[in-house]
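Protein Record: Sequence and Backbone Structure Tokens
======================================================
Tokens: labelled as protein backbone structure tokens, with as many entries as the chain has residues.
Question of interest: how does this chain fold, as expressed in backbone structure tokens?

___
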Amino acid sequence: MIEGVSSDLEPHRFTTFDELYKYCYRVASVVGLTTIHIFGFDSPEALPLAEKCGVAFQLTNILRDVKEDAENGRVYIPAEDLQRFGADLSKHDANFVRLMRFEAQRAREYYKQSQPLIELIHKRSRPSLWALVQIYRRLLDRIEHSNFDVLQRRISLPAWEKLSIVARAAVM
């Protein structure tokens, strides 16, 4: 985790998704793996699912923060994807939208793959994980519904929506 976070201190670019995955593992999956030990689980199947959940969260953060990261010399979207779609991270055009749609679908696939995790952690902790997943998934929904307008504004969930999710989790 320290290696992943410290890499953010310098301008950085990833060439391939494999490189980005390793970064996501270091900064987010490690946190998820630690958290499920706090939440409690019995099945070793929970471990790879927590890893995937962390990757999904981090990919969502990356999509939200494209502009801010680029301004700081950090480009997390792999060069292979930028090239494949002919996208420029400073221009919101059709190529950029296609790229972002592809990256959002990649994040959604990791959410889908990690979905069984909720049932594998101890029952008392499930509402917390459920709320986290809902908040991040809804953030991804908002990014998509804005047609990936992340170059003009930082998309977020309003406090009332987060509170609504937390309230719903509290009665689970």
User: Anything to note?
Assistant: The mean pLDDT is 94. DSSP finds nine helices and two strands in the chain. The domain at 2-170 is CATH 1.10.600.10 (Farnesyl Diphosphate Synthase). The first strand starts at residue 12 and ends at 13.
